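Table S2 (continued). Query chain:
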Amino acid sequence: MAYAPEQQIWVTTANGFEGYRITKYLGIVRGITVRSRGVLGQIGAGFQRIAGGNITLYTEMCEHARQEAFQLMCQHGIEKGANGIVAMRYDATEVGEGTTEVLAYGTAVVIEAVPPRSA
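Corresponding output:
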C-alpha cells in the first residue's frame, strides 16, 4: 500500500485497505505517458549494453515513466472525487522503435476508516 501525500490519495494493488471500507466505487482511473530515449541516450545505453549488467540509462527512463504515470493516475482519481485507488497495476507497450507507453491504472474509490470494536 502506498500513500501519495502530495496527492492526498491512498493506492494499493490489493482490492481494499485493511481497517477501511469502500463506501463508493467511482470507476477506472489511469495515467498514461509515452517516453523515448534520445539519440545520445541510445548511444550511452549502447555502451552500457556492450559492458553488460544493468543499463542504468534505461532503468532511469523507466522509473521516471512509471512515476509520471502513477502521478497522472492519482490526479485522475482525485478529479473523480476518490481518496483511494484499489487494484492498481502498471502496463507497458512499445508503440514504436525506442518509444514506450507506460500505463498506470486502477479503480477509484471512496474509503472510510472502520471504527474499532469496543470490548
